[in-house]
Amino acid sequence: MTSIGRASVLIGSGTIVSRLTGFLRTVVLVSAIGATTAAGNAFSIANSLPNAIYAIISTGLLTAVVVPQIVAAARHADGGTAFISKLFTLGTVVLVVVTAAAVAVAPWLVQLYAPGFSPHQQAVATAFAYWCLPQILFYGLYALVGESLNARNIFGPYTWTPIVNNLISIAGFGAFILLFGRSESITGWTPGMIALIGGTATGGIAVQALLLFVFWRRTRLSLRPDFRWRGVGLNQIGRLAGWTFLMVVLGQIAGIVQSRVISAAAENDPGVFVSQNAWLLYMLPYSIIVLSIGTPYFTRLSEHAAAGRHDEVRADVGRSIRTLGVFIVIAAFALAAASVPASRIFTDSPAEASAAAVVLVLFLVSLIPNALQFTIQRTFYAYNDTRTPFLFTIVQVAVVIGTAYLAKATLPIGWLAAGIALGQSIAAIVQLVVATWLLHRRIGRLDVAGWMLATGRFVVAAIPAGAVGWGVFWLLGGVDGWTASGKILGAVGAAVIGTVALAVYLGMLALMRAPELSPALQLVRRLIRR
Q: Membrane-crossing residues (predicted)?
């Protein structure tokens, strides 16, 4: 448990710094091209193409396949050197081919994802896409190296290197403002302006990926090109990756449907960029809490599963969910209470912040289910089972697509992003129920009642905490107050509201004598000391 705590602290502290610098990066970008403008949405679509593929690589193919396989390969006589060399060679070849193919079809990708754009907006988005799509290669290398380091219990570099990317982006976007000022209009964009924004975004990702190779020596493995891809179990990877590839297809279909629906949003209404920024806020607690705590647990789950220690797997699942729950529940309620000031960080007016806050709150409905789903899904991966996650992903995607079309048919244009967010949350809840039932069938009796009791205890404590935080927001003036008057003040206001909500939550847990409180506070103290 001590090693899990140290790894969680290392990942969590790096994630905090990474997310904060990422927030600053987005603030500078919004200052350069606007939040609800045609230009902002054009860049957002172009930059989301490689981001979507990276999300699939990092949470799908690599996490599902590579980590358990590298853990198993570590028992080879060479410590896994031959296996990893072949894997890296194959992965790099695939990434180069996919990147080249994506760049070649960039205009069609933009049309596929954003049919609601005007012809000129599509042209600008395509120009951005030519600069952004090479990120696929560097995102893939970053994920491949980072997940390999995680599998060897080297957790820090994967978390800390994105900070360099954020700093490069802040400098590049800041230079754009100095050279060209604020460019909201979709007209007047020159090749130099597009190159500076798009090149900065891709350059930061490239440096982030290449910097990660500096830490490879800690694995004590020699990495060399090896095109002899037979003989070390790559066929097994192929079988496993087949199901995750189908998950990729499903996820892409759902993402395309959502993007096509949101692209119809009018200028000055919440659109693609606002939705992505709301998701960025959503990912702050998810990254800090779920990834920092869940990632070390996943490595240990893989070790127990590979050794056939099923009782230890079930125990780790329960511990992981309880530890995640005590943090993620208050994060959801506190961020909901501070949704308007938090959204103001990435918008240009209190009115825009209020509209964006609705999108954020509807996304937050899925934060607790997705935190639990993280552990459930990765338990299947620990058993090299990627077929079952594909099955419950079918259910999730069906709900996402259905709710997206329902939003398109029933909601005004200004509410499309909110409708998509709510549909995403409903899908997450349904997926969790199905996935938990299937895991129970896979490994036997799970302590679901214990999870629900603990989560219910956290929710009971978080409800008054969130209510008090919301009351503080209105005592400070509400939408017309200082917490929504500017980007910096929005960040300060969100911090004040979140701190008050957290204090009430801790007090409630103490009154309830929650057994999870003491270990949670120990983990926080480690993080602060770090």
A: 23-46, 52-75, 87-110, 122-142, 163-181, 193-216, 237-259, 279-299, 320-342, 354-376, 388-407, 413-439, 451-476, 488-511
**Residue 225 structure tokens:** 């090109």
Q: Domain containing 200: what range? A: 1-232
Domain membership of residue 241 (yes or no) is no
7 shares its domain with 153: yes
Give the type of residue at 96. V
pTM across the whole model: 0.77
Neighbours of 179 (CB within 10 A): 10
> Is residue 148 domain-resident?
yes
Written in H, E and C, the secondary structure of 250-317 is HHHHHHHHHHHHHCCCCCCCCCHHHHHHHHHHHHHHHHHHHHHHHHHHHHHHHHHHHCCCHHHHHHHH
- Below-50 pLDDT ranges, the chain: 1-2, 60, 232
Assigned domain for 247 exists = no
What residues contact 57, with CB distance under 8 A and at least 6 apart?
139, 140, 143, 144
Distance CA 185, CA 114 (A): 18
442 in the same domain as 364: yes
For residue 235, what are the contacts with CB-CB under 8 A and spacing of at least 6?
A: none
List, as own/partner pairs, every contact residues 306-312 make where C-beta atoms lie below 8 angstroms and the sequence separation is at least 24, other chains included. Answer: 306/68, 306/71, 306/72, 306/382, 310/443, 310/444
